Amino acid sequence: MNIRQDTRPLYMLVIDRVKELMSNGEWTPGTRLPSEFELAKQFGVSRATLREALRVLEEEGVVVRRHGVGTFLADRSVVRAGIEQLFSVTEWIERANRVPGTIEKQVREMLPSEEDRDRLSLSEREQIYFMTRIRTADGDPVVYCEDRIPTRMLRQGWKGFSGSLFELLEASGHPIAYAQTEIKPVAHHDSVFALLGVRPGEALLLLEQLHFDVHDQPVLLSSNYFRTDTFHFHVLRRRP
């Protein structure tokens, strides 16, 4: 099918067409795509345009390229996320074309531990909001989150909270600019394994992150436990 009748950039039209073929069932998850030559001919575009479309689709987690094997439609049950850029859990799920949600949310105001006080640069009497919740993708529990936010960072409290702490902090005047991140495997955690329905023999991936706003203030300390059968993280590494 030639798609040159639309006036938008051609690579965007290719992206839309690929997603259309997926949504109507003509292309199914796991399907190996035709060669670049065949796809370019099918869509009526150059191979350079096709490659740009595939690059974007790969970033969105729609396709997976396997060197020397080919390009495949991604298994929709898997969220593939690059960690070079800082995205919220909500954004990661949305970029995988799945619907984010929240269950089992609890928030309480409390004094932080000594370690949390030091990391968040709090005075002795300052309190934090401590929130626990399970994040879902299309209704499936995929991430268990523990978040600590200094109460002074949320002058309006939780008004307008839709699920993304990044958006809430930005609305409160503290847009997040960067984060210090530690990545750890978790082989066993009774309560979290039970909450996420993790099977025996599986593991979780823990991302511990201290987030800073544009003024270099620490505004959020998070511990996110990801199901490894659902989240696959990757990073682009370059030689110095």
UniProtKB/TrEMBL annotation:
InterPro entries linked: Bact_HTH_transcr_reg, Chorismate_lyase_/UTRA_dom_sf, Tscrpt_reg_HTH_GntR, UTRA, WH-like_DNA-bd_sf, WH_DNA-bd_sf
Any Pfam family matching the protein: GntR
Domain HTH gntR-type: 8-76
GO biological process: negative regulation of DNA-templated transcription
GO MF, any single term: DNA binding
Taxonomic superkingdom: Bacteria
Signal peptide: none
PROSITE patterns referenced in this protein's UniProt entry, alphabetically: HTH_GNTR
CDD domains: WHTH_GntR
Keyword set, alphabetical order: DNA-binding, Transcription, Transcription regulation
Protein name (Swiss-Prot/TrEMBL): HTH gntR-type domain-containing protein
Organism: Tumebacillus flagellatus
Lineage summary: Bacteria, Bacillati, Bacillota, Bacilli, Bacillales
